[in-house]
Write a structure and sequence with these properties.
The complex is a heterodimer of chains A (about 90) and B (about 90). With about 90 residues, chain A is mainly alpha-helical. Chain A has 5 helices and no strands. Chain B starts with 8 loop residues before the first strand and ends with a strand.
């Protein structure tokens, strides 16, 4: 939430200083999972559906999550809504 | 056919939509100038619901002073036609 009043500056990958796109194996797995779900058209391929789900995460949860935690939560929500997972 | 030609002054719509949108909150209600017509893409707000709604997408330049009341830089946003209205 960098850039919003009280949340400090906007952080970028450059700020991490390690040049890594993923900071743990599970993050790469979440990325791959979402891309496979998109490839198989289980969720929208243009990312709009995932973004919409991310924006529907309850605000207190959203603010406490890292980037890929939000991806995972959004993917769980969408799969539950489509009847492919029990309610997350 | 795109509704707005480069150089046209446009106002970003002020309405707060219920779901996902690619119109940033900080630009809503503000006036900018069309820089170029980029392409035709489906409106993300509709894509979320599985509806394909192709529209012209424009690069629109907003001055920082217009958006935030100060600053000498400009912000370029890529905005769908539905997000814009002509300034009379």
């Amino acid at each position: 939430m960098g850039g919003q009043t009280g949340f400090g500056p906007v952080l970028t990958d450059d700020d991490d200083d390690d040049g890594q796109f993923f900071h743990a194996d599970w993050e790469a797995r979440v990325y791959a999972l979402v891309r496979v779900l998109q490839r198989h058209k289980v969720i929208n391929q243009q990312f709009d559906e995932l973004r919409d789900a991310i924006e529907r995460i309850p605000p207190a949860e959203y603010l406490a999550m890292s980037y890929y935690e939000r991806w995972l939560r959004a993917a769980e929500m969408l799969l539950a809504e489509k009847g492919l997972l029990p309610d997350a | 056919m795109p509704r707005f030609a480069p150089g046209t002054r446009v106002r970003a719509r002020a309405a707060d939509p219920d779901g996902h949108t690619r119109l940033p909150r900080y630009a809503r209600g503000h006036i900018g100038e069309v820089v170029e017509v980029l392409a035709t893409w489906s409106l993300p707000d509709a894509t979320v619901h599985g509806v394909t709604q192709p529209e012209p997408v424009y690069t629109v330049r907003f001055s920082a002073a217009e958006l935030w009341g100060s600053g000498s830089h400009a912000v370029l946003l890529d905005l769908w036609e539905s997000y814009l209205e002509e300034v009379s």
